[in-house]
Amino acid sequence: MDKNDVTSAPVNAEDNPARAIVKNLVESSLNDDLPICYDKESFQSKIDLLMNHFVDMAVQGYGWISTVA
After folding, report:
1. Which of 20, 50, 66, 68 is most solvent-facing, going by the fewest CB within 10 Å?
2. Would you say 62 and 50 are in contact if contact means Cβ atoms under 8 Å apart?
3. Cβ-contact 63, 57 below 8 angstroms
4. What does the pLDDT read at residue 14?
5. Residue 6 and residue 55 in contact, taking contact as beta carbons nearer than 8 Å
6. Is residue 20 within 8 Å of 27, Cβ to Cβ?
7. Distance between CA atoms of 38 and 6, rounded to whole angstroms?
8. Other CB atoms within 10 A of residue 30 CB
9. Residue 54 near residue 37, CB atoms below 8 Å
């Protein structure tokens, strides 16, 4: 695990409740919408991809995230 990769570490709701909520919502949405053929590794990869994207959006201040952050 890369120490700079913020999404590969487990999300602790006590340390970062907002991140935990977003990750929970992403997992729930992907669980509902991705085909059943996705294995755990592929599923986690998609979660990490989206979480990295959302972090980038927040840090750079673009997209819908900049209006809610």
Report:
1. 68
2. no
3. yes
4. 65
5. yes
6. no
7. 23
8. 15
9. no
Residue type, 65: I
One-letter amino acid for residue 34 of the chain: L
Residue in the structure block whose two tokens are 């972090």:
55
Q: Quick check: 15 and 27 in contact, CB under 8 A?
A: no
Of the candidates 60, 33, 63, 58, the one whose C-alpha atom is nearest the C-alpha of residue 46 is 33
4, amino acid identity: N
Q: Which residue is it, tokens 């819908």? A: 64
pLDDT tens, 6-55?
445 555 656 788 889 999 999 999 999 999 999 999 999 999 999 999 88
Residue that has been written with the tokens 């991705």 in this structure: 34
**Whether 55 contacts 66, CB under 8 Å:** no
Q: Which two tokens stand for residue 29?
A: 């949405």
CB atoms within 10 A of CB 20: 15
